[in-house]
Amino acid sequence: MALLNPSGAAPAATEGGGRAGPRVLLDACEDRLDSVLALARVAAHLGGLRRTGRDGPDPLPAAALVCDDVAATGRLLERGVPVVHLESGPAGPPDGQAPPERALVRVHRPGWLPPSGPGPRGARPTGILAPRRTGRNRTRSGTLVLLSLWGVPDAEAGTFAAGTLRGLAAAALHRTGSCTVVADTGLAPVRSALAAHPAVRVLRAAEADPDALHAGAAVFLASPVLGALALAQARRAPLALLPPLGNAQRDLAAQVAEVLPLPSAEDPADPALWAPPAAAGPWHLLDPALDDLRGAQRVARTLRQLALAPL
Question: 188-222: per-residue pLDDT in tens?
């Protein structure tokens, strides 16, 4: 399924009330947290363009932005639609499919991460995709758990949900007063594991606004995924990483550990987890020259140029 309006607001038809601009298609892998966050952050910079999802009506859109879904990119190119294909990191999808060469491929990944192998041929790096709003609410409360189970074996996901996640949710309710879990896939076992704590909200990432939820949360626990790292870095906010699940998360967590000493959210009884420092955390250790946080604007600009002047 596609995200028709990932920002949660009414689609912008024009800028300044003028004539509607070209129509662009926006699509992402809804079961992958990085894809959902990437699409929403780029979409926030597409004012003046009319937006539609995968199931939008004909005529064909002037251009398309597809996040990680190689098959969707291929179908659109076959229909003659120019595509900006946005990859979440150089590892690509688990089946190893590469995006078609005719697509304009962009890869979002923090510039401060150690190299992890070549990306898709012809791909250009974008750096971090920061949320459009980088401030946080003055009054923050509760805990946000941003959980990715994309590509995680069912047995591993079930064990984590019934063990570590259940303990963290219970501690979050006790320590911070509320807990919201936003997950990309595997919601059934997550809800089952948390059934004993009905006060815990469990939301599907594609139907929520994780960036807005983070702005109002006092404590942020997240899977080691690119979108969560970008969110905390852009807002200079404390972040504790959940235990990595699946090979992709373990690889990314190991790369992050080479650069940043982020705390781990494994022990619900650790009092430091529920009283994060007032300071920004370790983000000051990063060289600001390695990433300007404008990746979403760059991708949006490329899509706008493609829609207005197709190749």
Answer: 999 999 999 999 999 999 999 999 999 999 999 99
Instruction: Determine the distance from the C-alpha atom of residue 167 to the mean position of all C-alpha atoms in its chain, rounded to a whole number.
Output: 25
**Both structure tokens of 153:** 């074996």
CATH code at 143-288: 3.40.50.2000
Quick check: 135 and 215 in contact, CB under 8 A?
yes
Q: Are 46 and 17 in contact (CB under 8 A)?
A: no
Residues of the chain with pLDDT under 70: 1-20, 54-58, 90-96, 116-121, 278-280, 310-311
Architecture of domain 23-130+293-308: 3-Layer(aba) Sandwich (3.40)
User: What is the residue-wise DSSP string for 72-107?
Assistant: HHHHHHHTT--EEEEEESTT--TT-PPPPTTSEEEE
Q: What mean pLDDT value characterizes the chain?
A: 87
Please determine whether the domains at 23-130+293-308 and 143-288 fall in the same fold group of CATH. yes
Listed by start position, the domains of the chain span: 23-130+293-308, 143-288
pTM of the predicted model over 0.70? yes
- CA–CA gap between residue 219 and residue 191 (Å, rounded): 21
Q: How far is CA 281 from CA 108, 275, 287, in A?
A: 23, 12, 14
